[in-house]
């Protein structure tokens, strides 16, 4: 088979690496890709939102299967564009990707179908939102309705912070049109757990759990980011949590989307909060998480092409997902100053040590300079991942491997997976 992967981050590198392990695949293309992806796939200089060019490329190169990694093209309708030309593509159609594309839609869906989530109100008017906040209990959570690179959520401890947050989202339009509508929801406490799943429209198969670290600084301080590291599995995702979610969250979401005429095929990412009142849904994503993919996919035993084709064909019930009985930890190496401002173009060294099956270096923001050197090209630069016999072993290995990589203004959190010690 010839496979095209659409995207350019660490998630897409992890997908390409899984595709490369498939015995069914002869050739991988990635659009637009990055310097690391370029070592296992042919990078194609077409942007992820350039649907016409991507479709034309797939037809001209007889691509058998396309995998959409990123949220923006999914929400924008790239799957519909490919299917309209008779091309086989993995990911939800536009009317299903709204599960991630609109937080207001997903909250209304959960409310309608009794899927446990935080209490909320939605607003299209800033003054009405502020008036509501003056009656609300603090702390409180503000969410831009649309896509905001994982950064459109503000946790406000005081009324003053919350009012400032409304200005940021709805008036100053920090997140662009994503802030035209805003969701205000109750602040939940508990542990966060990420659960990825494969869905074929009616059947859902759960992958191994993971736990992300969103804040930029140690101790969960600083600004929200796209993710500074993660580990899998989560020791807090117990058998009891799994049984509850299978009954009230996972299949219920798939059935709700089908009932709404929005059949979902692809990956649903469930962001869960384990509260005193039981698990509740924080958010949905309509694709693999990043960096969750970097710890979940290396542990999956299945041929990823078999699983993804089953999602497209509606035959997922005929497969069983299998994962290695081990653990993985990913530490993100970022450019100092991320997520606000940072410099690019610094040469990176140390890749040569990642040459076995226990250590991985997933490229997120990298490029090749004119001299052919791999250089920094983003806020999140690399995801250094290690597998181990258990979480503590994997964590020790991952942090040891971060020392192998050098570049100017390298920054990372030093407490990824620290929660493991409390489990």
From TrEMBL:
Segments passing through the bilayer: none
Pathway involvement of the protein, from the record: Purine metabolism; IMP biosynthesis via de novo pathway; N(1)-(5-phospho-D-ribosyl)glycinamide from 5-phospho-alpha-D-ribose 1-diphosphate: step 2/2
The keyword Ligase appears for this protein: yes
PROSITE patterns documented for this protein: ATP_GRASP (PS50975), GARS (PS00184)
Cofactor: Mn(2+); Mg(2+)
Catalytic activity: 5-phospho-beta-D-ribosylamine + glycine + ATP = N(1)-(5-phospho-beta-D-ribosyl)glycinamide + ADP + phosphate + H(+)
Membership in a protein family: Belongs to the GARS family.
Protein name as annotated: Phosphoribosylamine--glycine ligase
Organism: Roseburia lenta
Encoding gene per record: purD
């Amino acid at each position: 088979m010839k496979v095209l992967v659409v995207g350019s981050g660490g998630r897409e590198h992890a997908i390409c690496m899984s595709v490369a392990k498939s015995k069914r695949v002869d050739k991988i293309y990635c659009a637009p890709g990055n310097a690391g992806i370029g070592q296992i796939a042919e990078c194609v200089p077409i942007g992820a939102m350039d649907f016409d060019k991507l479709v034309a490329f797939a037809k001209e190169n007889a691509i058998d299967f396309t995998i959409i990694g990123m949220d923006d093209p999914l929400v924008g309708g790239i799957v519909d564009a490919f299917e309209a030309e008779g091309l086989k593509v993995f990911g939800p159609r536009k009317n299903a990707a709204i599960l991630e594309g609109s937080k207001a839609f997903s909250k209304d869906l959960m409310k309608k179908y009794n899927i446990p989530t935080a209490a909320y109100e939605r607003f299209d008017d800033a003054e009405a939102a502020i008036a509501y906040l003056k009656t609300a209990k603090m702390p409180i959570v503000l969410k831009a309705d649309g896509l905001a690179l994982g950064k459109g959520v503000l946790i406000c401890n005081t009324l003053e912070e919350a009012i400032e947050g409304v200005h940021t989202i709805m008036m100053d339009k920090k997140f662009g049109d994503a802030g035209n509508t805003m969701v205000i929801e109750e602040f939940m406490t508990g542990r966060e757990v990420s659960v990825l799943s494969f869905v074929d429209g009616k059947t859902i198969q759960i992958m191994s759990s993971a736990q992300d670290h969103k804040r930029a600084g140690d101790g969960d301080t600083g600004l929200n980011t796209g993710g500074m590291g993660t580990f899998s599995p989560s020791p807090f995702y117990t058998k009891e949590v799994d049984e509850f979610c299978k009954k009230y969250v996972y299949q219920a979401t798939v059935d709700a989307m089908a009932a709404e005429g929005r059949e979902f095929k692809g990956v649903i990412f469930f962001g869960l909060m384990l509260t005193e009142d039981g698990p509740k849904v924080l958010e949905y994503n309509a694709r693999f998480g990043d960096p969750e993919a970097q710890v979940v996919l290396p542990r999956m035993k299945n041929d990823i092409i078999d699983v993804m084709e089953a999602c497209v064909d509606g035959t997922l019930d005929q497969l069983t997902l299998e994962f290695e009985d081990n653990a993985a930890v990913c530490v993100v190496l970022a450019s100092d100053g991320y997520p606000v401002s940072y410099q690019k173009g610094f040469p990176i060294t140390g890749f040569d040590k990642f040459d076995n099956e226990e250590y991985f270096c997933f490229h997120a923001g990298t490029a090749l300079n004119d001299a052919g050197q791999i250089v920094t090209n983003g806020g999140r630069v690399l995801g250094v991942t290690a597998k181990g016999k258990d979480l503590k072993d994997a964590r020790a290995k991952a942090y040891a491997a971060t020392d192998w990589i050098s570049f100017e203004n390298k920054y990372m959190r030093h407490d990824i997976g620290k929660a493991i010690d409390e489990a």
